[in-house]
């Protein structure tokens, strides 16, 4: 979908990005992670020509982006930043409609799309479409920013530290919404973050950058279990590797199907992470907990010993 072929970008003679070789595949959630100044935001901005590369080729759907009109290119790529950039004197509905109006969509189609996106992102259209940005919380503003980026149904969604200014509760809720949208639509998403846990939670493909270069890329499990350098180990925190691996696995991976436990214990959802399950085991003091499906049907149980001993599959070959 987006391919960087030997791409470099220099500022004052110094490389912000150097000889970048990277492919963001169609339908995949690619997360660029690294310390400040690692080149991840510059990489994202080069994808939609907000920043022009100095050498190399960037292809979008097979075409050299230098051969594409920048405005047309950006309309095919939704873009979300940390500060939402909403127009303060426009209503929520008009902010979301920005690109469809530029594309001269019919008014009724725009109105339907606005309401559809508000519902998708957990905002009641009747309550929110006529509000102004200053009447929204930070989390609500960020949701509207995502809705605006999705309004014209772009092929790719680019996200640059989109949740960085949010409190932990809103951050977690919006991460879940983005995951749900990506899984529902199979949308191609490229996200930049400095937050390790966010990167591990969201990524299909994780790309660790340092000094404008890719240090290692692959699945989150691969980078945690098979770091190719001390830098990778240090970045993800060797002492926290076990907990981070549990956060990538779900209760269904340890499910003892059909082994139902009666009683008043709060059941786990099969889609809960094993890290969340471990927290519930500690809080409850139990050695085993019941498990239900996401729609509430009894499935079986999980034992604390299974969570603590879970190793999972070595999926390095999947990369």
Mean pLDDT: 88
Task: Report the uncertain regions.
Answer: 314-318
Percent helix: 25-40%
Per DSSP E runs of 2 or more residues, the count of β-strands stands at 14
Q: Note the beta-strand portion.
A: 15-25%
Characterization of this structure:
By secondary structure, the protein is an alpha/beta fold. Helix content is 37%, strand content 24%. The chain contains 14 helices and 14 strands. The chain has a 6-stranded mixed sheet with strand order 6-7-8-3-9-10, sandwiched between helices. The C terminus is likely disordered.
Keywords:
single chain; alpha/beta; disordered C terminus; four-stranded antiparallel beta sheet; 319 residues; six-stranded mixed beta sheet
Write the topology of this structure:
Elements: E1 2-11, E2 14-24, E3 29-34, H1 40-47, E4 55-60, E5 63-64, H2 70-75, E6 77-81, H3 92-96, H4 98-102, H5 107-120, H6 125-128, H7 138-150, E7 156-160, H8 168-185, E8 188-193, H9 196-202, E9 205-210, E10 213-218, H10 220-225, H11 230-236, H12 241-248, E11 256-257, E12 268-269, H13 274-284, E13 288-292, E14 298-303, H14 304-309
Parallel strand pairs: 3-8, 3-9, 6-7, 7-8, 12-13
Antiparallel strand pairs: 1-2, 1-4, 4-5, 9-10, 11-14, 13-14
Quick rundown:
The chain has helices at 40-47, 70-75, 92-96, 98-102, 107-120, 125-128, 138-150, 168-185, 196-202, 220-225, 230-236, 241-248, 274-284, 304-309; strands at 2-11, 14-24, 29-34, 55-60, 63-64, 77-81, 156-160, 188-193, 205-210, 213-218, 256-257, 268-269, 288-292, 298-303. The protein is of the alpha/beta class and 319 residues long.
């Amino acid at each position: 979908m987006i391919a960087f072929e030997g791409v470099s970008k220099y500022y004052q003679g110094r490389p912000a990005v150097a000889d970048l070789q990277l492919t963001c595949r169609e339908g995949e959630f690619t997360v660029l992670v690294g310390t400040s100044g690692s080149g991840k935001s510059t990489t994202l901005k080069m994808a939609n020509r907000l920043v022009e590369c100095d050498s190399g080729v960037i292809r979008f759907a097979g075409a050299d982006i230098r051969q594409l009109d920048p405005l047309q290119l950006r309309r095919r790529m939704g873009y979300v930043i940390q500060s939402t950039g909403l127009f303060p004197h426009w209503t929520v509905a008009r902010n979301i409609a920005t690109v469809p109006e530029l594309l001269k969509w019919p008014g009724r189609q725009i109105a339907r799309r606005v309401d559809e996106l508000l519902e998708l992102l957990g905002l009641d259209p009747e309550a929110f479409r006529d509000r102004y940005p200053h009447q929204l919380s930070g989390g609500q503003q960020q949701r509207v920013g995502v809705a605006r980026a999705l309004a014209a149904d772009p092929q790719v969604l680019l996200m640059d530290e989109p949740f960085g200014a949010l409190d932990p509760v809103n951050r977690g809720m919006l991460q879940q919404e983005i995951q749900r949208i990506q899984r529902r639509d199979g949308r191609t998403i490229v996200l930049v973050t400095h937050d390790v846990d966010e990167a591990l939670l969201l990524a299909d493909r994780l790309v660790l950058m340092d000094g404008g270069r890719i240090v290692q890329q692959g699945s989150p499990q691969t980078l945690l279990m098979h770091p190719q350098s001390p830098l990778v180990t240090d970045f993800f925190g060797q002492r926290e590797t076990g907990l981070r691996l549990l956060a990538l696995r779900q209760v269904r991976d340890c499910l003892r199907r059909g082994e139902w436990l009666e009683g008043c214990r709060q059941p786990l959802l099969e889609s809960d992470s094993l890290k969340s399950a471990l927290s519930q085991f500690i809080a409850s003091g139990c050695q085993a907990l019941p498990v239900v499906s996401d729609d509430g049907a009894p499935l079986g149980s999980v034992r604390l010993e299974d969570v603590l001993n879970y190793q999972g599959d070595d999926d390095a070959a999947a990369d």
